[in-house]
């Protein structure tokens, strides 16, 4: 008999390689439908939350993870902070289930990846060394840097406390649900940036892996979690688990080497468990990944970087600069959208530069330039990228002017009145420039300029600017309070009383506003109303001191 195998006889191996054509086919699994239902229910609960606020007038404050920053910087314990703390605790035990089963942004990314596949658009994930550090840099910037600044300035921590709805940040219930949330159209744009564009640029679940600061915290805790995907002796190394993993993990390699998935990118979506044709995988408890020993000579495979060190540095610095430019721009751009733009804008600039310098440029399967000639897709990309870069440069000018103005105002405020002239004039000049350049007028920018004008001895101009701020955002009690103060100083006590009444209606537990209203009413001859307001102010101040 010939020792050669016949064409119809497959080679035998106790452990077929991943992708073996003779390996069993992946079976349909139930976890995908369950997880889709869980993620869909997150959006349903969001709608129910909003409807409850609309119908009841008061509801639970939004469970936003970024409210950890308010607790760290202001000491205000919020529902979002407690939600984040509970999620971190559960992650340290069970692993990253929250990311895979309860994050609305992951649902958006999975949907975007599915749509791109259906449209035949091949994704072009960036392979840059700097990307691996991005989420940890963002986490440091959000949570650690403010504390270092506070320590460097010699400011003590304000201490932990609960805040009522009259303050900018409410602890648990609120009548102003949207107070610290972006407008709906900004939220929609955030979904487009963090969904479609980031999935295209960074790959499936790219935002979770390469940009999300909360994901960075979850990754660290996942290393401590005893709960993870594990394998038994029925595994044949067919590679099915790796094929179905949408997080890009070499699951079969890690199972062979460690007996468990140790990669912290694992979101515990259980697709690998449900798809295993041999029922060899399960979720269970055992030694955490941090204490799992690597076998000698078994090192994770490193992907070849796509860019040079210089380009990596450009992408990293560009990310930080764009993040600083867009974060909170015009008081509307949320942090996660700024992170998405930070990842996308420098890459768009890089591709545009290549369009100028190179004769052949492709983006995924899309040919932008061929033999030195721009294709239709290249023209569209260049136009969109140029517009985006121009908007970024303009926004940078606005933020720089506002920053210089705020710094000059802080300097002027710290000087004696006789020596404030140059610094206060500089503050007005820079803040006026920021207001003139701004594409969107905001009440906060008007208020900053108003205080600078007041510092220069221009109370009438300041009063007009405060009035503009109130017109832009009538629901801000503090702006009405400031306007009332300047109206009282410039001979308009009736208007001051009107704005103070509006302020205490918006913030009924604001003791200072009630006190000032009471003083003005007494001055105008309404002693009964004035004394009532002053008594209420004393009561509210006493209650605040007791908390």
Give a structural overview.
With 547 residues, the protein is mainly α. The protein folds into 4 domains: 31-220, no CATH class; 222-291, Alpha-Beta Plaits; 309-393, no CATH class; 474-547, Serine Threonine Protein Phosphatase 5, Tetratricopeptide repeat (Alpha Horseshoe). Helices cover 59% and strands 4% of the residues. It has helices at 31-56, 68-74, 79-94, 97-102, 104-118, 134-153, 184-202, 206-210, 213-222, 240-244, 251-258, 271-275, 309-326, 335-357, 376-413, 421-437, 443-455, 459-472, 477-489, 493-506, 511-523, 527-546; strands spanning 59-60, 173-174, 227-231, 281-285, 361-363, 366-370, 373-374. A hairpin with a 2-residue loop joins strand 6 (366-370) and strand 7. It is globular. It starts with 30 loop residues before the first helix and ends with a helix. Mean pLDDT is 83; it is low at 1-23 and 295-300.
How is the topology of this model organized?
Blueprint: H1 31-56, E1 59-60, H2 68-74, H3 79-94, H4 97-102, H5 104-118, H6 134-153, E2 173-174, H7 184-202, H8 206-210, H9 213-222, E3 227-231, H10 240-244, H11 251-258, H12 271-275, E4 281-285, H13 309-326, H14 335-357, E5 361-363, E6 366-370, E7 373-374, H15 376-413, H16 421-437, H17 443-455, H18 459-472, H19 477-489, H20 493-506, H21 511-523, H22 527-546
Antiparallel strand pairs: 1-2, 3-4, 5-6, 6-7
């Amino acid at each position: 008999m010939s020792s050669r195998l016949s064409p119809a006889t497959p080679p035998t191996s106790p452990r077929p390689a991943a992708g073996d054509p003779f390996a069993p086919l992946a079976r349909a699994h139930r976890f995908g439908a369950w997880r889709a239902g869980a993620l869909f229910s997150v959006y349903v609960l969001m709608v129910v939350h909003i409807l409850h606020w609309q119908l009841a007038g008061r509801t639970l404050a939004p469970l936003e993870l970024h409210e950890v920053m308010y607790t760290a910087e202001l000491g205000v314990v919020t529902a979002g902070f407690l939600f984040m703390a509970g999620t971190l605790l559960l992650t340290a035990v069970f692993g990253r289930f929250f990311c895979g089963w309860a994050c609305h942004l992951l649902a958006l990314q999975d949907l975007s990846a599915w749509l791109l596949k259906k449209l035949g658009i091949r994704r072009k994930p960036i392979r840059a060394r700097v990307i691996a550090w991005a989420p940890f840099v963002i986490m440091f910037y959000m949570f650690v840097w403010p504390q270092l600044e506070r320590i460097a300035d010699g400011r003590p921590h304000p201490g932990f406390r609960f805040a009522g709805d009259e303050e900018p940040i409410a602890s648990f219930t609120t009548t102003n649900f949207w107070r610290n949330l972006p407008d709906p159209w900004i939220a929609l744009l955030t979904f487009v940036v963090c969904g479609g564009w980031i999935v295209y640029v960074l790959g499936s679940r790219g935002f979770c892996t390469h940009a999300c600061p909360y994901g960075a915290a979850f990754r660290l805790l996942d290393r401590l979690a005893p709960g993870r995907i594990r394998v038994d002796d029925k595994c044949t190394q067919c590679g099915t688990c790796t094929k179905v993993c949408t997080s890009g993990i070499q699951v079969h390699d890690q199972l062979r080497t460690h007996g468990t998935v140790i990669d912290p990118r694992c979101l515990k979506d259980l697709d690998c468990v449900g798809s295993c044709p041999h029922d060899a995988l399960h979720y269970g408890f055992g030694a955490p990944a941090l204490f799992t020993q690597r076998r000698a000579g078994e090192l994770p495979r490193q992907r070849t970087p796509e860019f040079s060190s210089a380009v990596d540095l450009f992408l990293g610095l560009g990310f930080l600069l764009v993040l600083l430019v867009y974060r909170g721009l015009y008081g509307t751009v949320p942090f996660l959208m700024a992170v998405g733009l930070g990842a996308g804008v420098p890459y768009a600039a890089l591709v545009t530069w290549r369009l100028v310098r190179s004769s052949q440029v492709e983006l995924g399967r899309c040919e932008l330039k061929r033999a030195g000639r721009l294709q239709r897709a290249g023209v569209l990309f260049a136009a969109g990228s140029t517009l985006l870069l121009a908007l970024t440069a303009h926004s940078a000018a606005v933020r720089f002017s506002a920053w210089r103005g705020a710094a000059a105002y802080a300097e002027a405020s710290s000087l004696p009145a006789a020596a404030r002239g140059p610094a206060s004039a500089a503050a007005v000049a820079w803040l006026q420039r920021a207001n003139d350049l701004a594409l969107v007028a905001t009440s906060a920018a008007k208020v900053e300029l108003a205080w600078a004008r007041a510092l220069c001895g221009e109370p009438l101009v300041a009063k007009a600017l405060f009035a503009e701020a109130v017109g832009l955002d009538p629901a801000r009690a503090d702006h009405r309070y400031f306007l009332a103060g300047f109206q009282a100083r410039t001979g308009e006590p009736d208007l001051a009383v009107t704005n103070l009444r509006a302020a205490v209606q918006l913030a009924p537990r604001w003791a200072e506003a009630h006190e000032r209203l009471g003083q003005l009413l007494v001055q105008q001859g309404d002693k009964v109303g004035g004394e009532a307001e002053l008594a209420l102010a004393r009561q509210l101040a006493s209650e605040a001191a007791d908390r």
